[in-house]
Amino acid sequence: MSLYDFKLYVQNNILLPVVRRHPKLADLYYFLFSSDFSREHQKVLEGKFMHLQALKENKPNSFHLRRQVHRIEKGLIMKNRRSVFALDYIGDTVHNYKKLSEFGDYTGQPDTELLKWASSVLQTYFNSTDTTNSVIAEAYKKFQSTKHKVEVQLKPVDYVPYKRAQTIKSNITYEDFLALTRQRRSVRYFLDKEVPYDLIQKACLAAAYSPSACNRQPFEFRIFTDQDMKNKVGAIPMGIRPFFENIPVLIVLVGKLSAYASERDRHVIYLDGGLASMSFILALETLGLSSLTINWPDIEYLENKMDQLLKVKPDERPMMLIGLGYADPEGGIPYSQKKTTDQLLQLNIQ
Ligand SMILES: Cc1cc2nc3c(=O)[nH]c(=O)nc-3n(C[C@H](O)[C@H](O)[C@H](O)COP(=O)(O)O)c2cc1C
């Protein structure tokens, strides 16, 4: 038995049955015997540090603004809306809004659409609340004194809550949607045919409408169409080694942990990223394109390679890859039997 096999044997057969029993034993195990969570811990701390540091140093923080504006919108749609609400964070929200408007975000560029949304919602907030309240009055003064780096439309205030009845409804039937989900299959063989970038943009537009915790959208789709770079990226994950060269476009979905001030949100990059990817992938199908989701296991040497190649920032984590292109009609597709609804739905079971 090699030393590695011996270590695995001890971990899995002697330590595991014991350390699984208590969180403190689990902590001890990961402190003494396994570094498998180390990178995750470090990245979560880096993200938290970046988030809090920006707030502490009075720097603009667009993730924070997205969350705060979202909270105000939720306050605005309350059925029995109060004339005074959000007192504990309106000052902070306007302060951050002013910073982002006057100095841009960490890239130095203003995020015009975010600022339009924020200014519309804040204006609506001040129109709907009691501005004689001293906290609201002070925030309003600051809001009005904001000098915008770019034009944000203050009138009419159109990026604001609206009634469900005003939603533009699609004509897609359940049968159409079900057929689309059945049409989507993991495709591993593609034609040597260029994918127009505007189709990727269209799929991304659909993905952007996916739900995201507090509307922060803490991810980026990094697109690789340049064949040399695409092949360098494709050679890293293990799950596509036999066929990565024939995938015309590769995407690395990167999560940004600086979106959060707390460890409790550490899973949200994966949830939000997964939801957006599903919309992206289904949209590709409607555009005649096929795709393959590709696993990104948490393996240190692979992650180091990817981090270097993509110049990943300290708070960023690759979460998965997506390959896409025009499917080779002769390429094989695994049947992949799906679980039944009876297996997946557990109704009112305690
Ligand atoms: C998170 C995730 C990781 C995956 N990783 C790989 C991979 O590395 N290589 C691969 O060939 N397929 C990969 N797949 C595709 C799955 O094998 C496939 O979705 C599954 O077998 C069901 O088939 P279907 O997508 O055609 O319904 C992955 C899928 C997901 C959701």
Account of the protein in words:
There is one protein chain. With about 350 residues, the protein is α+β, with helices and mostly antiparallel strands. The protein has 3 domains: about 5-35, no CATH class; about 45-145, no CATH class; about 175-325, NADH Oxidase. About 50% of the residues lie in helices and about 10% in strands. It has helices spanning about 5-20, 25-30, 40-55, 60-75, 90-105, 110-130, 135-145, 175-185, 195-210, 225-235, 270-285, 300-310, 340-345, and strands at about 220-225, 250-255, 290-295, 315-325. The structure holds flavin mononucleotide (FMN). Flavin mononucleotide (FMN) binds next to strand 3.
Helix content: 40-55%
Number of domains: 3
Strand order, main sheet: write it out: 1-2-4-3
Q: What's the Cα radius of gyration?
A: 24 Å
Approximate strand percentage? 5-15%
How many helices? Answer: 13
In the predicted model, the low-confidence regions spanning at least 5 consecutive residues are none
Q: For the record, give the distance between the C-alpha atoms at the N and C termini, rounded to a whole number.
A: 45 Å
Any idea what the shape is? globular
Record field, number of beta strands = 4
**Which CATH-level-2 architecture of the largest domain?**
3-Layer(aba) Sandwich
- Small molecules bound in the structure, each named once: flavin mononucleotide
What does the average pLDDT come to? 94
Query: What string gives the helices and strands in order?
Result: HHHHHHHHHEHEHEHEH
Main sheet characteristics: 4 strands, antiparallel
Category from helices, strands and their pairing: alpha+beta
Can you tell me the CATH superfamily of the largest domain?
Answer: NADH Oxidase
